[in-house]
Amino acid sequence: MNKPRLHEFKNGLKAVLVPCEAESVAFGLFIASGSRHETEKTAGISHFIEHMLFKGTPSRKPIDITRAIEGRGGNFNACTGEESTCYYAHMPYEYLNEAMDIIFDMYLNATIPDEEFEREKQVVLEEIKMYSDEPDAVALENLQRGLFPKNRLGASVAGSAKSLVPLKPDDLRRYIATHYAPSRTVAVVVGRFDEEKALEAISRNIVKCRYKATGFANVKGVDFSIAPTREISVSKDIQQTQIALGYRTFGINDKRKYAASVLDSIMGKGMSSRLFQEVREKRGLSYDISSRMQFFTDAGMFTITAGIDPKKESSVIKTIDKEIDKIRSKKVSSAELKRIKEFMLGNFRLSHERVVSKLFFYGSTLLSYGRLITTEEQVESVKSVTASDVLDVAEAIFDPANRAYSRVVPKV
């Protein structure tokens, strides 16, 4: 199959074309606009916009959008994060033009109808309530707020009733006009398609966009001199204690990124990881425990999460700290490093059999790095990580000064 192809249009939009063997095609738009670009007053507006873009355009009612995708056996969705929003559709390959037309129509022409606005606002408020009832979500949200105090990276992606209730339709329209610009947008096509026809379709749609990105001037970088909040604890009507322990660290463009990803897999990815083996298999302290390394533009966070018996919290933390001390002080063996790399690369290869997974890989990496990251570069970068690299990055990440601890405990 042909290699991924990057094309940049005069208005700044970048397009990645990834032809591969498939009976389907996925098309998505990735916009560099998320909760980090908001203010306290507009918190949650990016996520609200994500909902409202499905509520119609001048030429399409909401049901028209749904039927055009699902009626052909396809599916579509969207997601909002700290630094981006994505809209995508996955269709049988012969319907690529329909998928493009619909996603671009939503991106360019969403009407934000008044009659849908208040109704969908209630849906978003219910979504916020739903997550507030989930102790693992609460623990992680509080941890992120603790790791990034006084920065929008620590704010809830969904916002709150306080910020959402006052919003009006024009607020969303203005936000789109100042944030949804071609220069901050990546279009990705993955699957079975004709490359030249796909480029023509993107060009035909994006030329209609007249927006210029003007809403990003006040984005605040992470101030590493501000110490994380050491501990955040809340109580809920639950039986388990949910814990989230984390460390604030470097951003995605740091050369230690791949070593950090290997470290993450060693510590808490899968049932053979150190934390799973020590906490669950050897001591029976938790049903599940895992870790995650997450990167943003100028910062990152390493998190460990578990649901535990409240009486065993101290034992779990001691076991976690023992494993952290171990990986900071002793090189990983060549056998374990080889096994972990095979695990990571195997997962990567299997995920790339799915066109939607490829879509997110190319869209998110191009937004984050500002350049095309190939699968070959990803693979070789993981392969090149040494035991010394893992030891060095463990020392950098597991800095006690950058640690925070979040817990959701049962009500007494």
CATH architect. name of the largest domain: 2-Layer Sandwich
Q: Give the CATH class of the largest domain.
A: Alpha Beta
Please trace the helix and strand order, writing H or E for each element.
EEEHHEEHHHHHEHEEHHEEHHHHHE
Shape: globular
Task: Could you tell me the CATH topology label of the largest domain.
Answer: Cytochrome Bc1 Complex, Chain A, domain 1
Major β-sheet strand ordering? 1-2-6-3-5-4
Helix fraction by DSSP (H/I, runs of at least 4): 40-55%
Q: Count the DSSP helices.
A: 15
Number of domains: 2
Fourth-level CATH superfamily of the largest domain: Metalloenzyme, LuxS/M16 peptidase-like
Helix/strand/pairing class, anyone? alpha+beta
Rg is 22 Å
The poorly predicted ranges are: none
Cα end-to-end separation: 61 Å
Query: Per DSSP, what share of the residues sits in E-state strands of 2 or more residues?
Result: 15-25%
Mean residue pLDDT: 95
Largest sheet: 6 strands, mixed
What is the count of β-strands?
11
Give the gist of this structure.
This protein is α+β, with helices and mostly antiparallel strands and 412 residues long.
Can you walk me through this structure?
The chain has about 400 residues and is α+β, with helices and mostly antiparallel strands. The chain has two domains: about 5-205, Cytochrome Bc1 Complex, Chain A, domain 1; about 230-410, 2-Layer Sandwich (Cytochrome Bc1 Complex, Chain A, domain 1), CATH 3.30.830.10. About 45% of the residues lie in helices and about 20% in strands. Strand 1 (about 5-10) and strand 2 (about 15-20) form a beta hairpin. Helix 10 packs antiparallel against helix 11 and helix 11 packs across helix 15. The longest helix has 19 residues, at about 115-130.
